[in-house]
Design goal:
By secondary structure, the protein is of the alpha/beta class. The protein is 48% helix and 16% strand. A seven-stranded parallel beta sheet has the order 3-2-1-4-5-6-7, sandwiched between helices. Helix 5 links the parallel strand 5 and strand 6. Helix 1 packs across helix 8, helix 3 runs parallel beside helix 4 and helix 4 packs parallel to helix 5. The two termini are 33 Å apart. InterPro entries: KR_dom, NAD(P)-bd_dom_sf, Sc_DH/Rdtase_CS, SDR, SDR_fam.
């Protein structure tokens, strides 16, 4: 039996974030759906409410300290103290090193890594007070290195280091911290990659599927299922781990 909690999911307007928000709501949690634009987040929140769940849409830049503080305070006021947080917000600014600008580097590190730090720091006070909490950070197989993604790979590797450190710091307060590292997942972000590389999207999906042992690309719901496990009561003795959701052993 799931104990209803308040969950905050960042980058939840679409893709993995939206699927995760819907899954946590289906598991019985109240969900704060956060994205950089509240209007975009509202679509996910509305879908949750239409399905009988409870959801609040918020607009905030996760790299903005004041915006994060205000958003978490609003969640606590309107839904209750958030004790589950999924740090999913992210952007792509892919390029080879010699073409990558400092702004492209800073933007990616700020949203992924600074954002996860700021949101986790703001939420931990509620988790510590409750003596219970779940933090799930979204990493990626790109953390192991990926051509044209020096900024993204560095950010996603950083998410793993952040995960393991917060697991040590927050564990004594009943808070577990884990990471999910997806492989190729069919999302709007991947559609943008296809457009950038000039490859038809269906061809990109087909080529990617050939490299996956299970012979298909992942769906946002595949990742949401892994996140949901880490957020569950059943995962209370699992912390500081990185779970690769990539369709095979070669992450």
């Amino acid at each position: 039996m799931t104990t209803p909690r308040t969950a905050l999911v960042t980058g939840a307007a679409r893709g993995i974030g939206a699927a995760t928000a819907r899954r946590l709501a289906a598991d019985g949690h109240q969900v704060a759906v956060l994205d950089v634009r509240e209007a975009d987040a509202e679509a996910t929140a509305a879908a949750i409410r239409d399905a009988g769940g409870t959801a609040l849409a918020l607009g905030a830049d996760v790299a903005d300290e004041d915006a994060v503080t205000a958003a978490v305070a609003r969640v606590a006021d309107e839904l209750g103290p958030p004790t589950i947080v999924v740090n999913n917000a992210g952007i792509l600014r892919d390029n080879l090193l010699f073409k990558m600008t400092a702004d492209d580097w800073d933007a990616v590190l700020s949203v992924h890594l600074r954002g996860a730090f700021l949101v986790s720091r703001a939420v931990q006070q509620h988790q510590v007070a409750a003596r219970w909490g779940r933090v799930v950070n979204l990493s990626s197989t790109s953390a192991l290195g990926n051509r044209g993604q020096a900024n993204y790979a560095a950010a996603k590797a950083g998410m793993q280091g952040l995960t393991k450190t917060l697991a040590i710091e927050l564990g004594p307060f009943g808070v577990t911290v884990n990471a999910v590292a997806p492989g190729f997942i069919e999302t709007d972000m991947m559609r943008a990659v296809a457009e950038r590389t000039g490859m038809p999207y269906d061809d990109l999906l087909a080529a990617a599927a050939k490299d996956v042992p299970v012979r298909r690309v992942g769906q946002p719901e595949d990742v949401a299922a892994a996140v949901a496990f880490f957020c569950s009561e059943d995962a209370s003795y699992v912390s500081g781990q990185v779970l690769y959701v990539a369709g095979g052993p070669r992450a």
